Amino acid sequence: MFCGTGRINKFNHLEIGGCDAVELAKEFGTPLYVMDENHIRENCRLYRDSLNNLHENSEVIYAGKAFLTMEMCKLIEEEGLSLDVVSGGELYTAIKSGFPSKRIYFHGNNKSYAELEMAAEYGVGRIVVDNFYELELLRDVAKKYQGKKIKILLRLTPGIEAHTHDYIKTGQLDSKFGFGMENGHAFMAVENALSIKGLKLMGFHCHIGSQIFEDEPFKDAAKIMIQFAKIVNERYDFRTREIDFGGGFGIRYTEKDKPLAVKNYIEVLVESVKEACKKHNMPIPKILIEPGRAIVGEAGTTLYTIGSIKNIPGVRKYVSVDGGMSDNIRPALYGAEYSAVIANKAGCPREEIVSIAGKCCESGDMLIWDINLPKIMPGDILAVFTTGAYHYSMASNYNMMPKPAVVFVKNKTARLVVRRQTYEDLLSNEVFMPNSKNISLASL
Ligand SMILES: Cc1ncc(COP(=O)(O)O)c(C=O)c1O
Ligand SMILES: N[C@@H](CCCC[NH3+])C(=O)O
Questions:
Q1: Domain Orn/DAP/Arg decarboxylase 2 C-terminal, which positions (predicted)?
Q2: Distance between CA atoms of 297 and 268, rounded to whole angstroms?
Q3: Is 316 flagged in the annotation as binding?
Q4: Which residue of 12, 17, 104, 268 has the lowest C-beta tally within 10 Å?
Q5: What is the DSSP letter of 394?
Q6: pLDDT band at 381 (very low <50, low <70, confident <90, very high)
Q7: Does the active-site annotation cover 361?
Q8: pLDDT value at position 170?
Q9: Domains of the chain
Q10: CB–CB of 49/266 below 8 Å?
Q11: Going by CA atoms, what residue is nearest to atom 4 of ligand 2?
Q12: How far apart are CA 300 and CA 402, in angstroms?
């Protein structure tokens, strides 16, 4: 049975990081995001070592959008990875945690002038430039920060169609991200970037999509990016020092998912880069990758308490939990599928097919359709696996649902990393004056 990174203990309960999930639910309440810290650290090392063993001049950059807290930044720092941020807020989180700015890569398809200034001020390692507007903003930023060379990568769309959900494909020409190769924008961007004083072009970036199971798109990306670097070298006498191939490595949500082993993804990428460099007689650049989901996804489990159960004989049994699309938008957004167990009956035989509903006011707020579980009762604890990536980071306050707490579990201990939002938190930004009178303009 798929148990995420957990196991079933002698009480027939799910146990994660040596902690009984039923006890975690009691201590911290539900819904609760539980992150298996050792698993995250093992993934960091696996990616770092697999890449480094094949090509020393390399770097693994954790894509913070998957799951970002200051504690996570600290973990990433300790494991020697760099960090990809996509907004002023993510950058602020990293800086506040004490993450070294030189190891920060700043992404985003609509960075504001203020965000770019913030990046220059903190001295981030690379700004990954996405479009011509951003290059123009950077021209001004570079003028203001004269003396500080702003190192950049250009994000390119290599025209690759990865076989994944439409909303998480990014490498094709018809994308909001990056400079298109097919239409010549990528070359114009190189010319532009090289002409701006104060910017130092270091190389290129691409990201072909997310939750990719095949190796072919990575092979294609390697070939196309190296070929591009070769042409750029001939046309502009520019040597590409580094190429960032983005993230996208697939993980397991259900038993149907069959991702490649990490080593295989990395091997295919690095070998393809080396082969292409040999073909074009070019030095091998620094190789960077940006896994997000693959670092944290399988390490996360969400615990919920079962509430109402509605049986429609001959149709369906709806089992509702105390969370929903506010803590996991992925089923509604992508039709994502999940595996789950009842944490307090983890080893019991599966007896009935039920559908797990969230408590938000939307018919589409369904977490899992048709899952086979042991006989389920109100008060049972449901554990949904593989919720470490794009869950906490995509959580919302829809229906004024407080965001769940996050705990890290490791070696039989659990520590609170993010406390549960309170109702007061939900109102904390409101500017509300109960005794003020509405004065209409007409009466003035
Ligand atoms: C530029 C960039 N890098 C890295 C990632 C991380 O992707 P994943 O979580 O699939 O590894 C993303 C998200 O898809 C991205 O847009
Ligand atoms: N948020 C998405 C993936 C997009 C990744 C960011 N470019 C997911 O949950 O699968």
A1: 33-388
A2: 22
A3: no
A4: 12
A5: G
A6: very high
A7: yes
A8: 60
A9: 7-35+298-420 (2.40.37.10), 37-296 (3.20.20.10)
A10: no
A11: 168
A12: 19
Strand partners for 59: 288
- Please give the average per-residue pLDDT across 32-37, as a whole number: 98
Neighbour count for residue 67 (Cβ, 10 Å): 27
What is the pLDDT at residue 169? 55
Place of tokens 């009842």: 342
Cβ of 67 below 6 Å from ligand 2: no
pLDDT at position 123 over 80: yes
Q: Specify whether the CB–CB gap between 232 and 240 falls below 8 A.
A: yes
DSSP state of 295: H
Q: Whose CA is nearest to atom 3 of ligand 2?
A: 168
What is the average pLDDT score of the chain? 95
Mutate to test the pocket of ligand 1, among 44, 179, 290, 394 (most ligand atoms within 8 A of CB): 290
Runs of H (alpha helix) within 205-300: 216-236, 262-279, 293-296
For the whole model, what pTM was predicted?
A: 0.96
107 in ligand 1 pocket by Cβ < 6 Å? yes
Rounded to whole angstroms, the Cα distance separating 410 from 5 reads 12
Q: Which residue has tokens 């930004």?
A: 429
The C-alpha atoms of residue 335 and residue 342 are separated, in whole angstroms, by 22
User: Does the annotation place 290 within a ligand binding site?
Assistant: yes
For residue 242, what are the contacts with CB-CB under 8 A and spacing of at least 6? Answer: 153, 202, 203, 285, 286, 287, 288
- Rounded Cα distance between 285 and 229, Å, is 10
Distance, C-alpha 238 to centroid of its chain:
32
Q: What are phi and psi of 67, to 5 degrees?
A: -170, 115
Q: Is the per-residue pLDDT at 167 higher than 60?
A: no
Residue 185 corresponds to which tokens in the numbers above?
């924008």
Reading the block at residue 286, the tokens are: 């620094």
What's the angle, vertex CA 244, arms to CA 243 and CA 250, rounded to 5? 140
Q: Is residue 443 pLDDT above 70, yes or no?
A: no
pLDDT for 165 equals 55
Q: How many CB atoms lie within 10 A of CB 411?
A: 9
Mean pLDDT value of segment 223-245: 97
For residue 261, the 8-state DSSP code is: P
Q: Would residue 133 be called left, alpha or beta, if left means φ above 0 and alpha means ψ between -120 and 50 degrees?
A: alpha
Separation CA 3–CA 59 (nearest Å):
31
Query: CB-based contacts of 78: which residues, under 8 Å, 6+ apart?
Result: none
Which pLDDT score, from 0 to 100, does residue 436 have?
77
Which three-class secondary structure state does DSSP give residue 11? coil
Residue 441 pLDDT > 70, yes or no?
no
| Owner of token pair 């070696």 | 411
What is the ipTM, given to two decimal places?
0.98
